[in-house]
Design goal:
single chain; about 425 residues; alpha/beta; 4-stranded mixed sheet; 14 helices; 24 strands; about 30% helix; binds uridine-diphosphate-2(N-acetylglucosaminyl) butyric acid
Amino acid sequence: MDRIRIVGGEPLVGTLPISGAKNAALPLMIASLLTEETLELHNVPRLADVGLLLRILGNHGVDHSIAGKRPGQTAETGQTIRLKAGNIIDTVAPYELVSRMRASFWVLGPLLARMGEAKVSLPGGCAIGTRPVDLLLMALERLGAEIEIDAGYVLARAPKGLRGAEIAFPKVTVGGTHTALMAAVLADGTTVIENAACEPEVTDLALCLAKMGARITGAGTARIVVEGVTSLGGAEHSVLPDRIETGTYAMAVAMTGGDVLLEGAEPDLLQSALDVLVEAGAEISASNEGIRVRRNGAGLASVDVTTQPFPGFPTDLQAQLMALMTRAKGTTRIRETIFENRFMHVQELARLGARIRLDGDVAYVDGVARLKGAPVMATDLRASVSLVIAALAAEGETMVNRVYHLDRGFEALEAKLGRCGARIERISG
Ligand code: EPU
């Protein structure tokens, strides 16, 4: 298994391109199941999760082609993928594949909407919590699906097709909103989704579905209205920039000091996180080119942050913020409200010298003057990258193990950081 070796202490300086968002690319790719025509997606990041989802979709009969590189494109400029689900040859998503990537469970909605049936393995738990799917199933039941759970699989049927309904989510769920949207677009009649997730990735999916011929209003607000249509066509769509990658590198710059342009980043996608960074002492400015992050000289101030659904501070940046705050003056309080078990990085940050106390869903981080390199590993993607941030500022060498988590969600991480002056290398094997 590959490892990443980092020698800390170098400030980050330069330009760092931001990739297309993993969490938008995945549902957009899944939306290809809704039409027999071609869906062409640009700016798709080169990530392990994208490759795995292509395999899963291939199992259902989705053909894909990846456009060759054009002049000026590099391994870090996103790729163009064409997906065509001319015929759905299999409506079963097996455990072996779904258990490797939770988002693949989202094939359930579009398969059911197009084919009237689907059998998808329950995804199981994961490193950040239990992550149930009850609300996704509730949404499909509201649209008229009959759902049965048997031998670890969800069997969903709608022999007479889905029909529009009101779906009121008791809790904000991104996957639930994606599922409701992708099922409702082909349902008979009007669907109203209440307490919908407002995350930009939901808006991006809705935009793409609209290009395919869906009739959707209100995406990006808590109330989305969908007028069902009988079929969808092909479309061309570019994946929005990754707000979590943006926030991660912004925190890396705040951690090491330096001056970096996050090229292509959009501030509206992560304003709450940028506000926290300014409070902590970073300088942030936005331009047509992207977001520039600077921290010169002065130390970091502690903050008090609670994770929330969009537009609040994202849970997917909680671990990275915690890494940053390990070196702030005073005590930082971070409350995690989205996932009940998303503090797996605490023990590993402690190995680098961080002082963090946990009390239920709150972490108290007492800033320390210095961190010291050590071997570390983490059990999920965002936790892994929080260790990279800490390592960039730690004295001496840190070896980050289990790099496959990083490869799932960060395109060309070591190349991007390396070009900004970080001492970082991948060690194969
Ligand atoms: N929930 C339920 N029942 C459900 C669905 C969700 O109780 O049926 C709960 C969850 O347990 C959680 C909360 O609702 O407490 C929110 O979960 P949500 O459904 O919004 O999460 P998700 O759709 O499974 C996506 C991202 C996550 C991100 C969350 C929250 C993708 C592929 N995943 O997950 O991203 O943390 O939204 O913003 O888009 C990551 O990229 O590292 C990652 C974990």
